[in-house]
Amino acid sequence: MIRLQNLTLQRGPQRLLEGAELTLHAGQKAGLIGANGAGKSSLFALLRGHLGPDAGDCQMPPDWRIAHMRQEVDTLDRLAVDYVLDGDLELRRIQAALQAAEAAHDGTAQARLHSEFDSVDGYSAEARARKLLAGLGFDNAQMDRRVGDFSGGWRMRLNLAQALMCPSDLLLLDEPTNHLDLDAILWLEGWLRSYPGTLLLISHDRDFLDAVVDHIAHLEQRKLTLYRGGYSAFERTRAERLAQQQQAFEKQQAQRAHMEDFIRRFKAKATKARQAQSRIKALERLEELAPAHVDSPFDFSFREADKVSSPLLDLSEGALGYEGRAVLEKVKLQLVPGARIGLLGPNGAGKSTLIKTLSGDLAPVAGALSRGENLVVGYFAQHQLDALDPAASPLLHVQRIAPGEREQTLRDFLGGFDFRGERCDEAVRNFSGGEKARLALALIAWGKPNLLLLDEPTNHLDLEMRLALTMALQDFEGAVLVVSHDRHLLKSTTDQFFLVAEGRVQPFDGDLEDYARWLLDHRARQSSTTSAVAESEGEKTDKRAQRQAAASLRQLLAPHKRKADKLEKELGTVQQALAEVEERLGEAGLYEAARKDELKTLLNQQAGLKGQESELEEAWLVALEELEDLQRHLEEAN
């Protein structure tokens, strides 16, 4: 288990944990939540041994294997599938040792290492790595591309696959869904639910937490509180606790006011002086209960558009794509004020292509796209975070689009996005991804849009900001078209789904649970088609590889068979000698006093021969087992 006792953790002058307590038992799956900067990632560093506690204890089994999702990629020339396989360090160690043994023509070492290779499921390792990559959205061609060919988001997927590939007793995942689409998240949920080890997960996706974890560890005010259940259960339990705390606070305040009133009225009266002094001491002993401050730091809305057209956008018989090549065909879509549409579809099906076309970033390959006279688009996509001026502050960004507005009005507006005080004047280059996303949303909100096109708007946003965005979208009077892996956002802000798949955009008659089932069927169909093609194209190559593997294993069989035969022969000789000694020990006259020395010699011989028999028998069985393993692999190769 993991046990934190009276733990204090500090980074520089900032104290992150103080007197914290936490116990996680083996096999439990816990979500770690808390405000940005509260210390979640530092707690992960502590568990990985990269930080030491400033006070208290952090206890873990010393033999636990720990896997974690890296946040950087430092190997760009590796093929994607090899990069994922690198996550299994023991597998790579055995492969390197086996290569050295083959170069040295050491048959004995090769046989031992082949046995170790089998024990870590090495023969199925590449197939497992490719299965992980497929689940995370990579196609077969991408699996054999260089890591350096992928964008930052896809490299994070590779890091996630590498962490999942590593055999582990404790798995630490920091925001694993940030760069995933909905179908990859649904796959990851299933994988993590079947993970047998202990899981500690940092995530701002409430539906993902509900689906995966059985506990929530809440980091707040430098303390850790463990709640049973997923995020929804945590929310209910914490709300009840805060309500009780507020009631206790209000009751205590009434009690305090009554005491202070008594002291004020009777302190000067001789007949009541003693009682007043008693009240003063009781007041000093009264425990200070803080009121429940649960207000979100975010409070904003999308400013109401000055004018509205209907329809806002009308696309008919659209062919959408890049450089004259259509990704989507015969697209028909009309957006009117009040429309609430969520786009669903597998990765790469064309959801972002559709949004880019509607925003004007892409021209249709064919078809007619008409825009309303008063259309004002608020378009959010991840690449817009990079388009922010790194040298400008949030205030300057807004002043550029509202040059005639009072500065205090702009500061008040930015405060709703939690840009306050000095943070409002700080250069964007120092901001995190979440802060840049908040600023991009602020710029959209100020522009009074009547159509919001949102492509993964919750990436990098914490739970409080996601909730604020959800509430703002619910109050928005214009039209919304959104692509998001945040199911809570989709369920709370949309009333219609469109499915983007197989080159078409069509209404989807169902909810997110129905989409999850559709996705499973879609993957099964794709897998069946891919397997049939791969079997047809790769049959000759596979047979050649099998023959080569079989030839290699045949070379290993001969020395092992000789070793086993030799041990069996030696064992037979010892057993025969032991039988002769035990036959002599069966003679009745041997136990007479005159033959005492002979009896002692025979007993010593018996003991020695039994020891040799035991050692030879164990060595012979090991040799037989290695021989049988190699024989089995030979049969499989054939």
Automatic annotation (TrEMBL):
Alphabetized SUPFAM superfamilies for the sequence: P-loop containing nucleoside triphosphate hydrolases
Protein name, per record: Probable ATP-binding protein YheS
Gene3D superfamilies tied to this protein: P-loop containing nucleotide triphosphate hydrolases
Organism whose genome encodes this protein: Pseudomonas matsuisoli
Family according to the record: Belongs to the ABC transporter superfamily. ABCF family. YheS subfamily.
Pfam family, one: ABC_tran_Xtn
Keyword GTP-binding: no
The ABC transporter domain, residue ranges: 2-246, 310-527
Alphabetized UniProt keyword annotations: ATP-binding, Coiled coil, Nucleotide-binding, Repeat
PANTHER family: ATP-BINDING CASSETTE SUB-FAMILY F MEMBER 1, ATP-BINDING TRANSPORT PROTEIN-RELATED
One GO MF term attached to the UniProt entry: ATP hydrolysis activity
Coiled-coil blocks: 550-584
